[in-house]
Amino acid sequence: MLRGSRARTLVAVSLSGVLVGTLAAGCSMFDSPPDPDDAARALAAGLASGDLGAVTFKGTTPARATAFVTAAYKDLGTLRPQVSVSELSHSDGSDRATATLLSRWDVSTSPTDWTYKTQVNLSLVDATWQVSWTPGIVAPQLASDETLDIVRKWPQRADIVDTSGAKIMTEREVAAVGIDKTKVSGAEATAAAKKLATLVEIDPARFAAKVGAAGPKAFVEGVTLRATDPLLQRNGPAIAKVKGALTVPAMQVLGPSRTFAAPILGTVGEATAEQIKASKGTLEAGDTVGMTGLQYRYDAQLRGTPGLAVQAVRRGADGSVLDKRELFAEQSTDGKPLTITLDQKAQAAAEAALAQQTQHPTALVVVRVSTGEVLAAAVGPAANGSTLALAGKEAPGSTFKIVSSLANVRKGFTADTKLPCTPTLTVNGRQFANYTTYPAKHLGDIPMRIALAYSCNTAFISQHDKVSQQDLVTAAQSLGMGEKLDLPFTGFLGSVPPTDDAVEHAASFIGQGRVEASPLTMALVVASVMKGQTVRPQLVAGLPALPQPATPLDPAEAGVLRTEMRTVVSEGSGTVLKPLGVEYAKTGTAEFGTKNPPDTHVWMVAGRGDIAIAAYNEVGDNGVTGAAPFIISFLKADNLR
After folding, report:
1. pLDDT tens, 102-132?
2. Cα–Cα distances in Å, from 41 out to 1, 49, 105, 353, 575?
3. Structural domain boundaries in the chain
């Protein structure tokens, strides 16, 4: 009996044994019966290549055996096994032999392969070794009407959860509503499509055209709705009466509601061709992946690693699967939940505060002062699902005077240092003015806290010769604004560009020129003032803290800013927030566009207890009427402190 662990070893040993034995006996090899080695090796090579033309069979022909193997391998693409003869049992002079084949399939990138042994009977007929054919030669117990297939097994996608472990984005019941064209066709299908489209509130003409273009056996989806969607609840009976209408239940990864933090959480869908190509074999057509937002950025963590199963499949004449059984399985690795800091009640309250803002884009961001955790980041309906709340790039207007105040403090100013508040101020030929309704009684030399409380533009711009642009840049960074940090989410921390232009420098003092911020940015500025230390944002829990700025915020400096911002609430533009317990505030407007007079972005920032809030409205008259109502609505609805 010849034994060897690999085909190459076996071949060498068996051939040398034959040659040595023949020569030692002193007779010609052509006078001796052939050894079964060549036939066994030819079978192994044929199974590896899919071509059994070089093998003589008993019970079938090489062509039929090859056709069977071709069909068995068809669904495996280019994947083929490595096959070797691991053992050959044959007694000298016997016309019977048994070969043991070792097959190894590299079915995945893991170190584990699908391996198995099959025993093959050979018989010597007319000086030729014949292989007794059975489909089981190809794979263990494979039947004549079965083929091989590899099915990948993705684990259930991990959830996005809040810090308490409660699910935010998870699989939820949905229903795909559409037309089943096996039940209706022609003009009837067109009429049914239009009727159904009206019930599910999609474009009737477009859906009818889609149904008309589909094949006669197609299910044409019109819309996918949550199982709890009021529209489905309300129109469900009417939908069921539409001829050909079909409602298909399914599961889909979704947030608590259609709008809930949608720009942040993102979406999940079928992998695109570009994603499949970039994955280098990890993804295939039909795989579910993160498409946008956190679902996209943390896709690998959330989806885990797929397992797979090699199956023996029996199909009907039409190609449908009649039966399947598992020959080999490789277990999948579960994804890991992503914990984020959004508070579900706070987020819902923030979205409710903006729900009626359908004319202009709006946003509201809430940050926990002590930790930097983003508790809510909402956009109104007119923002069209944009990333405005965390990544918007807008002129912050007079909310930036908090930064300008810090730059002044670093030049020795206190909250009571007098600044000249004049009706207008000209810098290098450009005239700056206060807002139209600025109170005349607060013109003249006024304390810096009054200048902030009533938002005197000229008072802050008057320091443009003493406070450099770099002073403003550094002050902004100390308050968490303007640095380019590697954020673990889509966000923007603001920008205060250096400039040698005197007019642009002057405009920077009042948050215009090229100064930009997101609502997140301004919430962090307020949080830093309240904490007396630069506050960095945290949205994804458990990650290393972002670095502190090169020039940290001094608690004494922050104390001056808190005094100013308290004055905004006690007697300035933030008094509207005082009944709600707000301690710190600042309004802001920033001109933009080409109208005369120009439109203005409006802001309101506020602080109470352990939360800092920034509200933004793309177009409004002022922060009190255009942004403060969002903060008021939020604070009335939510119990955060």
Report:
1. 999 999 888 889 999 999 999 999 999 999 9
2. 16, 12, 18, 76, 92
3. 2-144, 160-258+304-336, 344-637
Question: For the purposes of burial, counting CB atoms within 10 Å of the CB of 62, is it exposed (0-12), middle (13-18) or buried (19 or more)?
Answer: middle
Predicted TM-score of the model (pTM): 0.83
337-356 pLDDT, tens per residue?
Answer: 999 999 999 999 999 999 99
Q: Which residues contact 118 (CB under 8 A, 6 or more apart)?
A: 100, 101, 103, 136, 137, 139, 140
Class at the top of the CATH hierarchy for domain 344-637: alpha beta
Please, what is the angle between helix 186-200 and helix 230-241, to 10°? Answer: 160
Strand, coil or helix: what is 161?
strand
Query: Which pairs with CB-CB distance under 8 Å and at least 24 residues apart come from 44-50?
Result: 44/7, 44/83, 44/84, 44/85, 44/101, 45/83, 47/81, 47/83, 47/101, 47/103, 47/137, 47/138, 48/80, 48/81, 48/82, 48/83, 49/80, 50/80
- Residues 2-144, CATH architecture: Roll (3.10)
